[in-house]
Sequence to fold (754 residues):
Amino acid sequence: MNRRLLTRLLGVWTCILLPIAGHAVPVYIGSKQFTESVILGELARVSARQAGIDAVHKRQLGGTRILWRALLQGDIDAYPEYTGTLTHELLKNVPANADIPSLRARLKPLGIGITDSLGFDNTYAIGMRADEAKRLGIARISDLRRHSGLRLGFSNEFMNRNDGWPGLRRRYDLPQKDVRGMDHALAYRALASGAVDAIDLYSTDAEIPYYHLRALDDDLHYFPRYEAVYLYRLQLEQNAPGFVAALNGLAGRIDEKTMRGMNAEVKLQGVKEDVVAADFLGLRADADDHSGLWSRLLQRTVEHTKLVLASLGLAVLLAIPLGVLAARLRRFGQVVIGLTGILQTVPSLAMFVFMIPLFGIGAWPAIAALFLYSLLPIVRNTHAGLVGIAPELSESAAALGLPPGVRLRRVELPLAARSILAGIKTAAVINVGTATLAALIGAGGYGQPILTGIRLDDIGLILEGAVPAALLALLVQGMFEGIEHRFTPRGLRLVARQ
Amino acid sequence: MQDSEPAATSAFAIRQVSKRYGSVVAIDDLSLDFEAGTTTALIGSSGSGKSTVLRLLLGLEWPDRGTVSIGGHPLEPGQVLQLRRRVGYVIQEGGLFPHLTAQGNLALLPHYLGWDAARIGQRAKELAELTHLPLAALERYPAELSGGQRQRVALMRGLMADPDALLLDEPLGALDPIVRHELQDELKRIFAELNKTVILVTHDLPEAAWFAERLVLMRKGAVIQDGCFEDLRDRPADAFVARFVAARRQLPRASR
Fold:
């Protein structure tokens, strides 16, 4: 076959395939775990729909790092971000006051585009109850220096970010010792109830007027500007130019007051984000996401069970052979049980985040993380079950002249079956609980309403996730007890009774 | 002055075997022959090495030095599984698998050897007759059997594939005196009917004398005396043998 024909064939194929690929794959939009970001995500989705582009919003993913990585890897195509986060957190060696055109130049080699400012600056601020601030005579952040006994409660991200508490403490030379990290939505309640005296807040937060808070003056100009923008993959300029145009069309249209108003609608009046977004764009909200409680529950149950079953199934396939090997080879056993034990100590959120570079976002990284968590209980119980077999029994099997494989299948594994099943049960119950965190990396499940409920301070929503999760855990526990009863040979139950 | 070639009729031969567990010497330069079709009792105190002899013959332990041969062939790791199938092994309390019924225990090896269910059932019935086990007991789990029945099933399991030899390690050690006495009678009858090579480990001298023509008294991994009961009683090789023979309670005489 000559080269020209080949080239031409390839060309034809590309012409056929490219448009298919372009239409079949929707645009993925991400958002962070707080209301404003979710609203901006919805705005992007509804604008895309307006432009005739199929878009999916993966809402309230775990945090800046998760979204940034997902964007770089192409797991999402766009998400709302703030310039201050880019200059201080995501990009290295960028001047703190870099403007959007210079950021655009820095992002371009990464394959990332940035819109102009959406029209508001949502900077960090330190807030106190207005009456308390007045009583103590605090108006500026510098005034905090004189009150070393104040208790500070900061969002976990603010606690650790370069442009958060560590830098603020240095700049203002703040003496406070009682500083704790908490969820941002909970921090307002802690402040209102007097459990803490000052918190970090975003200047567009709806709660500032609602809770009668005072944002202290940043008199040393520590906090950078946090102009809201959309980041998107530059590839979209070819694949979905209409979407890029829609995102850019939102630039300059949302001022601080409008944003605070939309935040208040969602957080204080309980209006859904998609309704708020559609209102802003002068549209009617689509029916999406307004399904009834039962169909929501069903969908989440399917998602949640899928995570648990897939991770557990894979873990059983690997962990039982590992446990058998561990029981055979003492050294190897120590190493395997040690390693799986270390995996168990990795904090769950960290484990989920570690999986993102390998598996992107969504169900797969969650399954991988849950899989790793399931290994230890199953390996350890398989090992313990086999090692715990009375030596005269293993020896009787050997003395019969049965080969090792038959001994394992017919004698040793049945004798260890109870212990192995107990290990699988432990792993399953832990998985049902841990899988609620998978919503942070876009895997859905019962964690989704819990996250939203925490964000919106809505107990009903939290229960909508927590109650089914608890019920599922009980169900799994009960099912395994049934399986245990069925699969434990009658002879062993007789022995246990004696 | 021992011959290094095993005798032609030897079922089992141990040649200059030593075995240690860490610093403990279990077997010390031991040589022993067991002739085909005879019954031998290995006796001695706990830790004398008598059980280790059985384990060496089955390839459950390997000697540090010396050789073990079965039917004139040296025991090698590659053939040990086949050789074990030619030898029945019965231990104290039977070593029955608790997750299988008596029948399941019996069927384990024949099933692996490819016997069909009818053949396995037929053989189990034969052996139940031989050992006087009620057929109904075959459907029960070990936990549902009496101690005596368990030992009968263990013996049947050892005999399923019709081995050339039977090795028994304290087979009656855990039974009460009445059952034990009854099974001693039956085992002796069974050994006589089967005409197999039997090696029985016990620490009970009367039991050894009841079963075996040849008694091998061991101490600290070596043979102290090898002969019939009368030899041990009338011509003890040393003071230990005399003590071992004498260490029996007489029942108190009825008072007049």
Residues 27-121+226-280 of chain A form a domain with the D-Maltodextrin-Binding Protein; domain 2 fold (CATH 3.40.190.10). The beta strands of chain A are 27-30, 55-58, 78-82, 112-114, 124-129, 152-155, 179-182, 198-202, 213-215, 228-233. Residues 158 and 164 of chain A are 5 Å apart (CA to CA). Chain A has a mean pLDDT of 88.
